[in-house]
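Write out this protein's structure.
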Amino acid sequence: MSINDEKVKLPINANPIVVHEPRFSQGGQADYYSFARDTMQNGTAEATIYNSKKLEDVVHEMGLKIKQHEENIKFLKTQKNGLDNSILDMQVALGKYQTESESGPENEELSHVLSEQETIEQILRYEKSAAGIWCQLKTRHGTQASHLPLTKDVLGIVAMLGKVDDDNLSRLLSDYLGLETMLAIVCKTYDGIKALETYDKEGYINKTSGLHGLGSSIGRSLDGRFLVICLENLRPYGGEFIADDPQRRLDILKPRLPNGESPPGFLGFAVNMVNIDSVNLYCATSSGYGLRETLFYNLFSRLHIYRTRADMLQALPCIRDGAISLDGGIIKHNNVFALGKREVDLKFPKSFAKSNLPQDYFEIERQIKEMKWKKERTVEDMQREQALLDHARFNFGIKKQEYLKFLAQNSSYTRQ
């Protein structure tokens, strides 16, 4: 049998091969131009459908992001409302405690108010100081001053942020810190410091803005330098607190002489002898630290308090961060002795002990302060989420218009 007579067998599953042949013109010649055009149109249609699907997916994904931000804001609003309700309930409970304690000694509270007023008057005597100008603003405008852009980040003046039970000790602590530190302004953040003083392009102080501008507006020009303390940049105390102490005093190891005994006449650490208002005991900073473990720990560190100079001198081997005696002795850091007459008249206000209030009162005050701090963080989160939502909606609108325009321009392909 010859090769030509042999039948060729195809595989059973063989797929037919489709060959697109070029069209022929009326004269019988192949129309290669039409063939090429049809092939390009088929490719364009596929690319158009692909790009349409891609744009649709992007728009869909952006829509999901918008929905996520909306749900986050809804959750945060619910959280904020819950905090508001809890704060209100606790404030009602505090009001009940205060009403029950109104029968207590009124002259003690009056003494407390007079002591604070005395300290404010002492600050106001320094008319051209930053502290004096700030106190003048507070005196004239009250709580409204705290909402001004210039002062909303200011927590207060060092001399007004703590209270001391004993008037003599109060003067000694003020003398140890010095007038410049006692008049220092305390800000929560560095942004607050930048708002207090601004500069021109040459680096000179802008006298029309900040505290300088405020002083000029009330007829008190700000002279000389002044201290401003930034709480968020202070390194906080890293140890424990005394258990069940409503004042959250620091649990610092008591000093020991080389023989292992406690020095005679040692009364305690200065940082624990300053009483702090409950509103500043917790969450004075955005990180949740209070004034005792930030401001006053950095001012006093482990400053010792002794009964007499003789006791203080006997304890020299265990004094590292300075010491004070109630009869007027002062040792600064590195065994630098302060001698001579006391010159600082400014002092901390005297404490007002709420002796007739139950322990629950202070715990509720602490919880209110903590919840207010959480509420502030929640509001900040809501503002961030709202900004993200507005940005996402803006981008979504642009991409949606781009998608609709693409569909309109390529409607003949996208309908296939």
